[in-house]
Design a protein that fits this description.
42% of the residues lie in helices and 20% in strands. The protein contains 16 helices and 17 strands. The strands form four sheets. A seven-stranded parallel β-sheet has the order 10-9-11-8-7-12-13, sandwiched between helices. Strands 16-2-1-17 form a four-stranded antiparallel β-sheet, with no helix packed on it. Strands 5-4-3-6 form a four-stranded parallel β-sheet, sandwiched between helices. Strand 1 and strand 2 (104-112) form a beta hairpin. Helix 3 runs antiparallel to helix 7 (150-166) and helix 6 packs parallel to helix 7. The two termini are 43 Å apart. The mean pLDDT is 91.
Amino acid sequence: MNSYEAAQNARKAAIQLAAIDSNKKNEALKAIAAALEENKYEIEKANTVDLENSQKEQVAMPLLKRLKFDEVKIKDVVQGIQSLIGLEDPVGKVQIKTELDTDLILTRVASPIGVIGVIFESRPDALIQISTLCLKSGNAVLLKGGSEAKETNKILYQIIKNATEKVGIPEGWIALMETRQDVNDILKMDKLIDLLIPRGSNEFVSYIMKNSNIPVMGHADGICHTYVDQEADCDLAVKVVTDSKVQYVAVCNALETLLVHKDIAPVFLPKLKASLDEHKVILKGCAQTRKIISVQKADETDWETEYLDYILSVKVVDSLQEAIDHINKYGSGHTDCIVTKNEEKANAFMMLVDSGNVFHNVSTRFSDGFRYGFGAEVGVSTAKIHARGPVGIEGLLIYKYRVSGNGHIVADYATGKKHFTHKRIISF
C-alpha cells in the first residue's frame, strides 16, 4: 500500500473513529497494553537490531539513548496507557451552550481534528504515545519514524494495529510510513491530512513548514534555561539544576543554559560544580563564571545550542530582567525555570518569559505530558496556536458548532419580529 492509499484509508477511518464511544476506545487501549507486555521479548529483539545497526553507522550517543527500548521503557509506556485509560474522554464534551432565542440553542462541542501526520525522531516510545493519544482523542494517524528505529517501529505498529482491529477499531486508523519519499508525499496531502506534527531539528521542522500547505504544530530545539536568583535557597537550587541537567540528558526538556545572579554566584557555583562533577558534566561559562570556577569558555554559539549531552553553559547576570531578556532572545519557547524564595520575582518571571512552560523551584524535566497527567504527549508545541506546551488529548481536539431550533428563520430577526436573547447557559 502506498502513502496516498494509506491516507485515504485513514480519512475514512477517522470519520468512523470520531463516533466510537469511550468504552470501546478504552477497550482498545487495554488491548494495546496487554499486547505490548505479551510481545516484550520480540520488541526487545527488534530494538537490538536497530541499536546494532546504529552503532555500526556511528549514530551519536544522544540518539542511541533515545533509540533504546528495553523492558523498563515498555513498562513505562504501558503505565502511560493505563493513565490514559483513566482520563475522561473529552470528545463530544459541550464547551459552550448559549440560548440564542427561545428554543434556538447554540452549542460548541469538542471533536477530533481528523487525520494527523506525525514525523518523529528515533524514540520508539513516541510511536506508542502518539498512536494511543490519537486513538483516545478519536483521530486517525499516519506515522513516520526515523530509519534508525525501523525494526522497532515496525513491530510496535503491527502490535497496535492488530490489537485495536481485533476489538473493533476501524481498519486503517493507523498506518506506518517507512521511506523518505513517504514524507514528501505526506506534505502534499492537504486534502487528506488535517495536521502535521514534526519532531526533529530546527532545519527539519522549518522544511516541513515551508513545503506543505497542511497546518503544522511542533517544536524543534529544546533550549531550556534555569535562572538562579540572588534570593534562592542554595541547596535547593543545586538539587533542581542537577536534576534538570543530568536526570536524562538526551531529551528536549533537559537544562542547557544556566543563568545565575552575580550576588549568589560566588557561593552557588562552586557547590553546583561539585554536584555536576559527580556526573562528569562539562561546564562552559562566561568571563564572570570563569573567575569563580574553572570551566571551559562559552561563546555566543553556546547560548543557542541544545546539547542533549552532559554539557551545560553558564552565564552570570546582573538582574532578573537580564535573565528574562536572555531567555527571550536565545530560548526556544520550551521550558524555563526560576529558583527563588521571592514570590513576586517568580510571578514576574513566569509572566514575562515567553515560553510554553514556565516553572518556579522545580526541575525542567517535569515538562512532560505524562507528568502533567495528560496520559502521554504527541510532542511539545512551542507555537502559539490552539495547543502549547506538552500536547495531550485536548491538544488533538478542535470543536464544531451545533445549532438546534424549531423552524427558526433569519427573516424574523431581520424584520424585528423576533429578537436574540444570547443567554449563556454553559461557559467553557
